[in-house]
Each structure stands twice: as C-alpha cells, then as structure tokens.
Design goal:
The complex is a heterodimer of chains A (334) and B (451). Chain A has 334 residues and is mainly alpha-helical. Helices cover 74% and strands 3% of the residues of chain A. Chain A contains 12 helices and 4 strands; from the N terminus they run ααααααββααααββαα. Chain A has a two-stranded antiparallel sheet with strand order 1-2. In chain A, strands 3-4 form a two-stranded antiparallel sheet. The longest helix of chain A has 35 residues. By secondary structure, chain B is mainly alpha-helical. The relative contact order of chain B is 0.13. The chains are: A mainly alpha (334), B mainly alpha (451). Chains A and B meet through helix 2, helix 3, helix 4, helix 5 and strand 2 of A and helix 2, helix 3, strand 2, helix 13 and helix 14 of B. Chain A: One of its GO terms (biological process) is aerobic electron transport chain. Chain A: This is Quinol oxidase subunit II protein. Chain A: It comes from Methylocystis echinoides.
C-alpha cells in the first residue's frame, strides 16, 4: 500500500466527482422519488400531475450521473473498472431501470397497453434507487481487489447491509419526492403528499438506524480508518434532526420546510460516505492517489471539461430550475 | 466457435452496439436534416417546410430518446465486461469519452428542449440556432466516439508504462490521420441513411396519394441529397480503405479474402471464404485488379493472411461479406439518387410508380450499410482490441463468469426486444399518421403536461 499524496489535479477531479454525485443524489433523488411514489397512486390525473412536476427537470438531473461516470472513467479508470466489475448484475439492473425510465417519458401518450409505461417509469425508479443504495452499502465493508481488478464473487452486494441501504434509499428518495411535490404543487396533490411525509420520514429514520449499526460492525471488522473517526457520527445525527424537521414542516404545513429539511438529510447522509472512506476510493484497496490517471490525462480533461464545460452545466441546471420556479401549473406545457 | 466469457462478452457488445448504432446513424442525419429544413423555412417563409419539419421532429424525438438510453449502456459495457481494457486504456479513452459527455450531451440537452417545446416561446432566429446546436451536438458526439474507436484501431500518441497506456500527445490522438477519414465516413453514412429514409417516406406518401406537396419536398430533397452525398461518401470510403491498407494489413487481407501474399494480386469480387481450407469457394476474381484497388498500380505486391501468425489473423468470412454488402448498399443508394434526379429533371418522378416503389423499399439500405460497415471494422480488427498491443481475450473482466454473461445477454435481448418493438411501433404509427398526425403527441412526450 502506497502512502503517496494525491496531486492537485487528482484532488480537483475527486472534488468534482463527489460534488457531482452529491448534486445527483439530491436532484435525481426527488424525481426517482416521485417515480417510486407514482406506483402507489390509482388516480390517473394525480399521476399525470406528478409526472408533470418532474417533466422539465428529470432529464437534466440524470445528466449529473453521466458527469460522474465520465469523470470517474477519465480521472480514476481503476475505480471505474473495479466498481463496474464488482457490481456486474446490479449495474445491469440499474441500466434496465434507466432504459425503462428514459423511454417511458418518450413513449407515454403514444398508446400501447394501458399504464405499461407508467409501470415502466415507477418500477424503473424503484430499481435504480435500490441499486444505488445497495452499491453504497456494499462498499462500506471493503471490496476484494487484486492488481487493480475485482476478484470477488457475483453476489457480494446482496448482503444484509447493502439490502438495508438499498431499501433506505428507496424510502429516502420517496420522502424527498413527496417533499418536492409539497413544494411544487397545490390542491389535492399537495394534500396527498403531505399525508405521506410522517410515515416516510419515520421509516427512513428506522432504516438509517439499522444501516448505521450494520455499517459500524462492518467497518470495525474491516479495520477501516473510518471506524476510528468518532466525529463522523455528526452526520447521522444531523440526518435524524433533519427528519424531525421534515415532520415539523408537515405539522405546520409550511410548503418549503419539508423539502429543505429532506435536502439537508440527503446531504448529510451522503457526507457520511467520504467521512468514513477517505482517502480510499475503493475501500480499502485503492486510494485517490493510487487510482488517479496520469497528469497528462487529468490536465487534458481539466482545461476543457473542468474549466469550461462543467460551469456551463451548472449554469444551465440553475437556469432550468429558475425558469420553472414556483408552483408548477399544468399550463406550463403551452 | 468456443463460447467462453470472452466470446459471450463480444456477442453481447456486438448486440448492444448494433442496436445502438441504428439510432445515432439516424439522429445525426435527422438533426442535420431538421436544421436544413428549418433554415429553408427561415429563408423562404414557405409553410410547407414548417409542416415537413414538425412531422420529422416527432420522429426525431422518439429516436433521440432511444439513442440516448442505448448509448448509456455502451459506456457501461467498458467497465462491466472489459474492465482490464478500461483500467489500462482509461487514461486515453476516459478523457475522450468524457469530452463527449461534457461537450455533446451539454449542447443536446440544452437545446433539445427548446426544439421540442420552444417554437412559440423564442424568436425564429433563436429557434433555428437551437436546431443547429442540436445538430452540432450530435456531430460532436460522433467525433469523440470516432476518435476513441480510431485510437483503438490505430493507436498513436501514447507510451505504455506498466501495461497502462499513457497519453503523450493529445493533438495526435484527437486529429490523427485515421480520425480524419473515419469521422467524415460516419457522418456521411448518417446523412445518406437519413436522406434515404426521407426520400422513402416521400415515395410512400406519393404512392398513397396523400400529402402530395409535402411528399414532393421529401422526395426532391431526399433524392437530391443522395445524388450528391453518396458519391462523396464513396470517395471518403476509398480513403478509409487506404488507412486500413496502411495501418491494419491483416484486416485488409481479410476483407479481400486474400489468403496468400500475391504479386500482382487479384480481386475477389464475390465468393465464399472457407476458413478451414483457406480458400475461396465459388469465387469470381479478376487478376491484377486487387493490386490496383489497394495500391493504385497494376502489379503491386499485396500482403496476404499467410504473412501473419495464425493467432494474429482476424476472422475472414464476416469482414469479407459485410464489406461487400456495405459497398452494394452504397451503390444501390447511388443508383436511386441519380435515377431519381434524372426522373425529376424529366418531370416524370411523381408518375413513375415503379421508381417510387423502389425508393420506398430501399428505406433500410442506409442502416444495412452502417451496420455492415461497423462489423467490417470491428470484426476485422480481431484478435486485437487495441490494434497490435492488447488482445481482446486479455481485456475481459477477470471476475466475470460465463453464467453472468449468459444471463445478462439474455436479459439485454428481452429488454431490447420489448422496448424497441414498441419504439418501432410508435415510429410506424407516426409515419402512418402522416403530416397531419396528432400534434399533441409530441408535447405529451414531455410528460403528462398537456392533459
């Protein structure tokens, strides 16, 4: 194991990847959540309204996953290779989820068996969220790597901790989605979403507790550096406080509070990960310095993509959200 | 054929890439076609162009969605099935694919929305600008992909340290001699494919005696573009052949089914290469022509497959056949284009039902040519994934098991069959609906916004 310090360029790109991942988790989180919730609705008008509440945003939100994937392949190819090799079957499920979600939006309204594409969107969303959560849960205990390649089995991601994390993200995203609907809609859809906040927040808190204990056991067993970082407990505590904030927002019926609190929850839940993993990108085999591409690759990418394209993605994302600010009316389509 | 993890992964890659390439080869062309037709509307103000535009925009929206999702699958294939390739060539392939995501995705995502729902919200000039940007985005996308693929076909501008490919000269990698011919070859393939589809749709409506004015616009533009673009494509294709001759001699020998080095070399026009006996069955060949095609003189010495150790030889049958189908498809499109222009000049185009039928039935020719061209390029470079440097058999993910790949391959087949049958059905529905097809369909594709 080398103790080399990562170069400034490697730090820049790891920063970009973590930040993009955080943006992705929050933004795609709410539209995955709305997709997950859409499977529980019978009323087609309510469902159309739900789809309308994410229609202008979901495509742009997913772009951040592409940013993460592309940056990872370019800046840390060893991580890309190990991660996708280790999660062969879950990645397959993720791709199918993304395919069905993507075409469902394009195919809706063209006919076909009734509700086929609604189910495609809903189940696709559940699968995507579950796989993403499970992947996080699976790497906490460490990944089997030799010579920069994965050497473990095909089903190591299907252990109790990953499954808990997967369920946790499904429910957590659903919570975020419900908060988004409260923020962006009014009338019956907002009431519908308000009625689900307490239950979703409660289940999320419970799954978080179970996952937290499980993670601590696996971290200690793996001898991970994160196990000794007692300050890292700050993040789960903020998570629980934020969930209480969601419930309070629901009680006083302030439309913006639940979403703000749910975003705070997502951010602190996400920050737990670097807090317990740093400086590893693949626990506990490859550090940032080990996995980084040569500087010739990192700087080539830095001048065009990092310095020019990435800020434009940020500006564009901001513009879309600004254009569609406030409560969404159906009239936006025309 | 031995069905191990490598062969199964290759079949899987071939399956997903063949499905994927159908969409970009159509959408690159359609985006350019939409920008052209919108430009014509902007200049002339002719309402027919607007109607033709709106019609093709609906088709574009469906194809674009399917192209994007199948494209994401391709990027992940590198990591899931070819992780050794990813790890070793990541310092070069990663930034190239990264630039595709950052530059092309950005343009497309930004302006595609304007194209779909912005007609009444932005000025006509800005709308035309948005169409051009989407078209530019699709071209950027193909540029980076061709850069990446061309580097694997003829690697340059790098050094190898501990088995990893480290970039030394990005300028050489991005503007190499191979990229310079293969990118235009792909662009023109897409343009020709779309021109053929536009002409075929016009011919169909003419045969049905519906939407005659719009059908004529499609026929004239489609056939005219074919008449001009196909000869240019044949010339670029010839340059592509030159690069193969120079950089990938084993592939060139396989395409020509040239088992032995010859001086002068004959050209096998048609035949059935037999790998067991290393001969060509039922062959029709012309003496000396092979030397002329390859080297430009009548008695040049041409390398045969016997110049390479058996382990370094590509399969012969597939590149030989697909290359000939590709060229045949190109010649067919040329004939349709030139004949169409001739008939149009004589004023007999709309009355020649046999020609309208020919044009209509030729609609898949471009797709056939594109897929065959890719098979020629990709099978012909075997057994190398990075030509001469990294074998395909050494690039596969080490932890992968045969049952995982069998399962995923079957799953891909099922999912693609479901999704793309519906996609094809909806596109057919749009084409049947014709010019006056339901306008709301387009908006409802943005979600349940219009209900």
């Amino acid at each position: 194991m080398t103790a080399a310090e990562p170069s400034a360029l490697a730090l820049f790109w790891v920063g970009v990847i973590f930040l993009s991942l955080l943006v992705y988790v929050v933004l795609d989180g709410f539209d995955l959540g709305v997709g997950i919730l859409s499977t529980t609705v019978r009323d087609p008008e309510l469902r159309d309204e739900m789809m309308g509440a994410i229609a202008p945003f979901w495509d742009g939100n997913e772009t951040w996953l592409v940013v993460v994937g592309a940056s990872l392949f370019a800046a840390f190819p060893a991580v890309y290779a190990v991660f996708l090799g280790a999660f062969y079957l879950p990645v397959l499920l993720l791709l199918f989820g993304l395919i069905f979600r993507g075409v469902a939006f394009a195919f809706r309204g063209h006919g076909g068996p009734e509700r086929l594409w609604d189910w495609g969107f809903g189940i696709g969303s559940i699968v995507v969220a579950f796989v993403q959560g499970a992947a996080v849960g699976a790497i906490i205990g460490g990944v089997h790597v030799e010579n920069h390649q994965y050497v473990g089995g095909a089903f190591e991601w299907l252990r109790p901790l990953p499954v808990t994390c997967g369920l946790g993200l499904v429910v957590g995203d659903a919570l975020l989605g419900a908060c988004w609907l409260v923020l962006k809609s009014d009338g019956s859809l907002r009431d519908w979403a308000y009625r689900r906040l307490n239950l979703l927040a409660g289940v999320t808190a419970a799954l978080l507790a179970v996952a937290g204990v499980g993670a601590l056991i696996e971290l200690t067993a793996a001898g991970a550096p994160g196990a000794g970082r007692q300050w890292a407990i700050v993040f789960p505590i903020i998570c629980w406080l934020a969930l209480l904030g969601v419930m309070r927002g629901a009680r006083i019926r302030n439309d913006a509070t639940p979403f703000k609190m749910a975003v705070l929850f997502m951010i602190s839940a996400f920050l737990t990960l670097p807090a317990i993993m740093w400086p590893y990108l693949i626990p506990y085999r490859l550090t940032v310095a080990d996995a980084a591409s040569p500087d010739a690759s990192l700087s080539f990418l830095f001048w065009g993509a990092g310095l020019v394209a990435l800020p434009i993605v940020g500006v564009y994302t901001g513009l879309v959200y600004w254009t569609f600010r406030g409560k969404l009316k159906r009239a936006y389509a025309h | 054929m031995h069905f191990d993890v490598v062969m199964l992964s290759r079949i899987q890659f071939a399956f997903v890439v063949s499905f994927h390439i159908i969409f970009p080869s159509f959408t690159i062309g359609l985006a350019a076609w939409l920008a052209t037709i919108e430009g014509m509307r902007f200049i002339t103000g002719n309402p027919i162009y607007r109607r033709v535009f709106d019609f093709w925009l609906r088709v574009f929206a469906l194809c674009f969605g399917m192209g994007v999702v199948t494209g994401i699958v391709m990027a992940f294939q590198f990591g899931t099935n070819w992780s050794v390739l990813s790890e070793r060539t990541g310092p070069i392939q990663g930034p190239l694919l990264g630039y595709e995501a950052f530059t092309a995705f950005l343009l497309e995502a930004t302006f595609f929305g304007v194209m779909l729902v912005g007609r009444n919200r932005v000025s006509p000039g800005f709308y035309l600008f948005a169409c051009c940007m989407v078209s530019l985005g699709t071209m950027f996308s193909s540029f980076w992909i061709l850069c990446n693929n061309s580097w694997m076909q003829a690697p340059l501008g790098h050094s190898v340290v501990d088995g990893r490919f480290i970039p030394d000269n990005w300028w050489a990698i991005v503007t190499g001699p191979v990229v310079r011919v293969r990118w235009p070859h792909m662009l023109f393939a897409a343009f020709c494919t779309t021109a053929m589809c536009v002409a075929a749709t016009g011919a169909w409506y003419r045969l049905k005696d519906q939407w005659a004015a719009e059908a004529d616009v499609m026929l004239h533009w489609g056939l005219g573009l074919l008449a001009v673009l196909v000869p240019m494509q044949l010339a670029i294709g010839h340059l592509t052949g030159d690069y193969v001759h120079r950089y990938q001699p084993a592939k060139f020998a396989a395409i020509e089914a040239r088992w032995e080095t010859q001086k002068p070399a004959s050209e096998v026009l048609i035949g059935w290469p037999d790998e067991k006996t290393q001969t060509n069955l039922y062959a029709l060949s012309i003496p000396k022509l092979g030397s002329y095609i390859a080297s430009g003189n009548w008695d040049a010495r041409e390398t045969g497959l016997d110049a390479f150790p058996p382990a370094d030889r590509p399969p012969v049958l597939l590149p030989f056949l697909t290359f000939r189908v590709m060229v045949g498809a190109g010649l067919l499109m040329l004939a349709v284009g030139w004949l169409g222009v001739l008939l149009a000049l004589l004023g007999r185009l709309a009355k020649s039902r046999w020609f309208l039928w020919t044009t209509f039935l030729s609609f898949p020719t471009g797709f056939v040519a594109v897929i065959c061209g890719w098979v020629t390029a990709e099978v012909g470079r075997q057994p190398w994934v990075v030509y001469g440097l990294l074998r395909t058999s050494e690039a596969v993910t080490p932890s992968l098991t045969g049952s995982e790949v069998v399962f995923s391959l079957l799953a891909y087949i099922v999912v693609y069959a479901v999704v793309y049958s519906f996609g094809a059905l909806y596109i057919l529905k749009l084409l049947r609906g014709g010019i006056e097809g339901p306008g709301e369909v387009l908006l409802s594709s943005m979600g349940g916004l219009t209900r």
